[in-house]
Request: fold
Amino acid sequence: MIRFTLNGEPVEIDAAPDRSLARILRDDLGRTGTKIGCDIGRCGACTVLLGGQAVNACLVIAWRLAGQHVTTIEGLDSLPVSKALVQGMTEANAFQCGYCAPGTMMQLAALLTDEPEASDDTIRAALEGNLCRCTGYHSILRGARRAADLLRAETQDKD
Reply:
């Protein structure tokens, strides 16, 4: 049995130690917001937060989950950066088909949590592992910039 926290809720699952987190989430726990693209860690579609760090869920194997905290796209609203991130991406009409959206959003949530004032270069570097076939990335970058601007404004309002 493997015990971990998923989106703030305790989970106990009987899974083979070499089963991937992506498969556990989708097939065993019904959390289909996490997408599987390449299944070898190259597309970023399955990005989730593990202990607050963005990881490819297809590369995380079950034994690594013991005692960990996992946040998927279904738990995005629990993160302090969520409102700004969703607003920025919505205003920029960042996604078309949406397949890359959950992984991209989780990657950006990790980045903006650590660096709310992330520069364009930092945003681009963070998104290097998230592939999108629809947008050409311009709208995603605009949305991420807008989210960073909103977070900057929040910080300034608190001062």
In short: Strands lie at 2-6, 9-13, 47-50, 53-56, 69-71. The radius of gyration is 16 Å. The chain has a mean pLDDT of 95. The domain at 79-158 is CATH 1.10.150.120 (DNA polymerase; domain 1).
